[in-house]
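Predict the assembly for these two chains.
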Amino acid sequence: MLFLAPIGSILAILFSIFLIRKILRHDEGTAEMKEIAGWIREGAYAYIKRQYSIVGIFFAAVFSVLFLLYLRGYLIIFVPFAFLTGGFFSGLCGFIGMSVSTRSSARTTAAAKSSLNGALQVAFSSGAVMGLMVVGLGLLDLSIWYYFLDWYYRGLDEAIRIQNITSTMLNFGMGASFMALFARVGGGIFTKAADVGADLVGKIECGIPEDDPRNPAVIADNVGDNVGDVAGMGADLYESYVGSIVATMALGSAAFVSYGKSLQGITIPMVMAAVGVVASLIGTFFVRSKEKAEQHELLMALRRGIFVSAALIAIGSFFVIKFVLGMQFIGVYGAVLSGLIAGIVMGLSTEYFTSDRYAPTRAVAKSSRTGPATVIISGLSVGMISTVIPVVVVALAILGAFYFSGGAKDFNLGLYGVGIAAVGMLSTLGITLATDAYGPVADNAGGNAEMSHQAPEVRKRTDALDSLGNTTAATGKGFAIGSAALSALALIAAYREHLHLLGMTINTDLMNPRLLAGLFIGAMLPFAFCSLTMSAVGRAASGVVEEVRRQFREIKGLMEGKEKPDYARCVDIVTTSAQKEMILPSLLAILAPIVVGLLMGIEAGVGLLVGALVSGFVLAIMMANSGGVWDNAKKYIESGAEGGKGSSCHKAAVVGDTVGDPFKDTSGPSLNILIKLMSMVSIVFASFIISNTLFK
Amino acid sequence: MLFLAPIGSILAILFSIFLIRKILRHDEGTAEMKEIAGWIREGAYAYIKRQYSIVGIFFAAVFSVLFLLYLRGYLIIFVPFAFLTGGFFSGLCGFIGMSVSTRSSARTTAAAKSSLNGALQVAFSSGAVMGLMVVGLGLLDLSIWYYFLDWYYRGLDEAIRIQNITSTMLNFGMGASFMALFARVGGGIFTKAADVGADLVGKIECGIPEDDPRNPAVIADNVGDNVGDVAGMGADLYESYVGSIVATMALGSAAFVSYGKSLQGITIPMVMAAVGVVASLIGTFFVRSKEKAEQHELLMALRRGIFVSAALIAIGSFFVIKFVLGMQFIGVYGAVLSGLIAGIVMGLSTEYFTSDRYAPTRAVAKSSRTGPATVIISGLSVGMISTVIPVVVVALAILGAFYFSGGAKDFNLGLYGVGIAAVGMLSTLGITLATDAYGPVADNAGGNAEMSHQAPEVRKRTDALDSLGNTTAATGKGFAIGSAALSALALIAAYREHLHLLGMTINTDLMNPRLLAGLFIGAMLPFAFCSLTMSAVGRAASGVVEEVRRQFREIKGLMEGKEKPDYARCVDIVTTSAQKEMILPSLLAILAPIVVGLLMGIEAGVGLLVGALVSGFVLAIMMANSGGVWDNAKKYIESGAEGGKGSSCHKAAVVGDTVGDPFKDTSGPSLNILIKLMSMVSIVFASFIISNTLFK
């Protein structure tokens, strides 16, 4: 049944192409609308060109290091090349996703002239391209390598062959990880530096509204939505997707060898991914809305797509497991359900804590009565308490996945179950990412309507879609964090198994002092990483502020709307500083596990991964939800509560929103990458660290 | 040599009494000064009376539970009674410390009329009483029980007798833990609710300065300094002190039994504590200042005391270890040094990140140019990056203590070394706490000078002392967090040993899913706990705001200074709400380890402790240092930087300071208690959980 994987991947890619053609057939609107969309597209291309050329240099350097490690016997020859293909496919996803999203925004605005559902269809289709491309290309990369390695190792016994394949493929996530690092961190810095910079001068100093074409940073701000929330989010989830599959294959090969079912064990994650592709495809057809839909009905339209897909996966994977593994191992199905349910509950929990329909957001809005300080305190407090449900859910999912799969009798089966839970959660990725990557398109469509002076009802329709996009962005973040945590856990388990295969028996007792030292350092790393990314946003934003001030000062007639600002210069400044600022946090993430492993021993390295996972997971949820609740409390006040727009409450809430920007769009999401990437780096550099550590 | 412990303890108590008499001989100043001091003293007594009566009920309830556990065979008979003595001595410390500090503030003001050194002597003596009482009474409690148990078990073989003594005494920290919980959490809520409430109405709404006698909450604010920073801090460190000693004794009994040196092993922590008492006593004589001392010279005066004590301990403990354990185990001395050095480095690191003499505080002050949002972001960023040094230092201290003590050959010896590092760090407690508890006295003295309209040079002298107190408060917090982390780690190690003695062999492998689930939940608990305590401060402060507004509205002539406000009513309101608000977070801390242990198994309980330790440690440092840097950035601006007092930069910095108040004085320090208390609860309830857990 393994052949289902390449079939699913090709199906996803073909359907994406069909969607792209469908989107492009839509009218892009008036000349003005086209011009605005053109600037954004140009800015996005300029960004991605610069980013990919820097990433290219970086990939060349890491490729050389990996090749050197191969020459010294620490790696097999395929790893450096698989590193390149992983990075290439992930980068390709980002490129396609952004190309489509920047072509869809004006078309969404144009469609909004006639109907809400029409606009929803265009924006959602653009999101669906991103979602399906991620799963399609991810699965394609894995399938190609699987069949190649299967052919390469054809002379070996099945069990040994599979062990060789999976232990090789385990190294393959690193290309995707590195690409994700740059896309998330660089994109996160870009989007928030542009946003904060545009707001600080435009809204606060000059008093012009959001998305005003006179603001020189307005295009950079719109580009940022695509760069951060489309390309960045896509690369993040591509990494989780590929990482959880290769980790589960490695765990499966170890777990089922004694039952003579290695092949079956590694088939499950690949086939489940294929089932997920088909289910997501079907799910997209259930996303439609009637005209004059309420906010809540629109949300239901998107939810319907996800729920249909999840139900199809729940049904399909039962038969897959029964057919492939047999009734003896049907318990593994419990692991699938654990992951699926955990993903859905985490999304709902995020919505509760960040939507203005519920108490927490309203409490934060109310706290604005006593000024910005109480807004900050109450928002942090909501973010902190919002970690309880996701953490308990993930803890229960781990226990459920482990014990349902038979971990009580066979420890390796239990770990395999944990991997399957991650794969189960991520099997809805095609559609979940679609609902998420739809957001920036709707946001840009609103900006386009504003800048091209459309009739109020157009703006009202795009606003409805944009506001929905804020909710799906929040739940999407919850999903991304939860799946990152489970994927990272599967990778850590696979890493431990990998060390066994390398002949290392390590003492992972919790009281081993080296492991404890690693745990402490690991728990600290997410904080250090957030500090670096937050201050990076501050520095990059100050560059934008200066440039915007300069343009207002030097370009005569700009404030009166007679002259056009130099949009490209702002895009260029943020692009340059985002590339520069992403280096230090990236190095921290890459070097920390290697340095700690070399100086404190391999057990400290394992402790570091687990410490970073547990503290990073909690911190990421807190930052995402604090940011979300501040954002929505501000919007709630703007909708008329607590004195409405311009009141002192609103000013206090804007402070919260500004603090929340880097929280929810830069530092928080970047933690997802940190926890996964460090595991991937540990796996790839394992042999090197073992041979060269000072502390054996 | 064990007899040195009671001797040291009595010495400390006698010297404290001598200091108290010396302080009381000082003149308390004018009638007005006496009156003001009287109000604060009355308020403090009212608070402590209410708190102790609630705590009394609570202790009676827990005593009954423990007695029930004894009747059901889960505990031995001494545990419930030791619980009471621990609570009693800790409470007595707090009572004496507060009695003295509230009697010293007016005397410090009076002494400041003639000389700076005179004022420093009074304030520091008051701090020294607290420091020496904590170590004296702590050591007395332990000595009494030790000699009693030694007599009780007199019929047994030495090794068995000592094992019985240490495993019984291990349970004895819980009384101190519970007392610390209420003192820290209740005191923390009190002090910040009063402070924030007084500021919100007084400074912001009515525009009257800090410490203005017209503000009805001003006395409550001054009471809060004593309640939070004297009694709360003292109880926190009392718990660390007692906890680290009993944990190390339990680890020593296990480590040295095979060498026939159980008695020697448990002697070391007790005797080192006694050496620490003498060294602290001597250190106090080195704290003196010349007239017209610069801020930095004053700091050096206090530092000199600590460094002299640390040097004496470093010398003394070498001979203690050589004499008691012999040269064979001289490596244990390396553990002492690891702890001592880590404590000092953590203090210096805190100073760097929070003092306005260094770059981080100045950068936060500078960020106020772009408004409150950037102040918040930069302050959080400083707090987050400031976790790096303390975490690396603690990780190195753990490794150093473990391996120096011989952990590579004998695992138990290594764990004993970790305990010794905690004891080593805390051996300077007498003097470290003195420099810390001196702060509130100086602060109150400044308030007294302001309210009683003293000459400017008096206020200038008290300001110099107060400002110094802010620095020592920050470094004291670093010390309290670091020692809490090491004590908690020693307690967890002792807990694991305790489980062995109970016949449980638990699988503490990091990949055990129950342990992992516990780790995740544990890492989340500090965040949930902070959320609860922060929102508690908000609610309690809003009660104060309403009362202050009411008094300004209803008491005619108050604003003009013709009528006195009703100070007692404000104290009463904060007292009541602090007692009410401390219940929920306290229950979380007490019940979490029991509930998780019962529902998910004992391994999950162990994971929970370690998860809470690593994430709580990092979060506590971040919160303390973010709070510290905001406070000092505001003070730096008030001293004239960035436009000075009243500028828009100052307003932005005030927002940061207000957010920082609950960070540094409520939530952050309360985490110290959380991580230690949960270990103590786990130890005491271990038998009960083992017998009744659902997940065996």
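The longest helix of chain A spans residues 456-501. DSSP finds 22 helices and no strands in chain A.
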